[in-house]
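pinging the channel bc i need a second pair of eyes. not urgent but kinda urgent?? the chain im working w is below, pasted from the shared doc
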Amino acid sequence: MGSFLSVVTLSFMGAFLSVASHGIPDRTPLIHFSPKPAVFSVKKSKDSDETEQVSLRALVESRCQSLFTQFHPIWWLFNGHVQTIYCVLGNFSNRDEMWYNRGLDFAPIDDTMLKDDVPIIVDPTSHTYELSCIPWDLEQNNIGLLSTFVGKHVYSKGMGGNLQNLLRRHEKALQSEPGHRVARAMPPALALRNPTLEKFDDTFTRVAGGSAPTFPFETAHDYYRWGSSHHVVKDIRVPFLAINAADDPVVRHVPMDGGGNGLVVMELTTGGGHLGWFQAGDGAVDRWTTKPVLEWLKLTAEDIVYNKHSKRPLTIDEEGWLREEGSPLLGCKETEGGGLFDGNGGEDGMLQGL
């Protein structure tokens, strides 16, 4: 609680000094498109079979207009730290109610009372979240976290504690093969006291975070360099939108050039914190990102006409995995033990939003 009050006090002081020095800030978001954006076939109208060729930039500018609107935080969540802390401590179960059917996850489970334009989430990984974080450059963002008191003792230790609690929850299963390197890495990881993210990763993740021959790594930094996603943005093969906040205290390094990829749209809002973007809604707090994301999903799922012949054929292997030809390491299948899954509450001992 002491750390929380300190952050809130510093946030109020920072906000006051900022406004006093600079007046009302310009909240216009920065949006980056490739100089050569991809071109798609799109329907001329909702009920028409006629199509036209339009660049991704023109499509976003005409059909995702809320991406270009300013984000205005609700008055009491006025900077990135407070937005992030509210994301961690807030209760959103009544606002963003979500239940899943486990197997392949479908949400919501009962669509009989929904309007035709309500999106259905299908999650083949069985791990669906409203917002997810792409940490981009893991090494540089980790260095940034450890360079400040709040970054190290609030955010980094919060994430390290989350991972340690996750190990404790699955300790029995992870230690079922005593000679395995995962089992051997468990005792020192569980013995850590209030570890930072880097300390946990250096003790456990670099050793047991994946399969051989890639793992183990010599250090956490070697693992960070290997696992960073900013250097593969250029290889994205589908329309991709990333919304980032300039005052995100956790993810400070963002590849705003989009890797020169014509399929990528990168946005940087002036505020929002880490997975926050809380604004004043209709009698309650809601998220600015909701409308832009729904517009993007409609554009990419309904308006763009994809060339069916460009898709690689799907096959089902001898173990029942549905795979795309040429991608032997990716696949999905329906599993036993499905059923109703409550996605409304947090997990015990875990800090949400980090």
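so Residues 1-8, 13-22, 122-130 have pLDDT under 50 and may be disordered. and The CA atoms of residues 206 and 223 lie 6 Å apart. — does that match what u expected or am i reading it wrong
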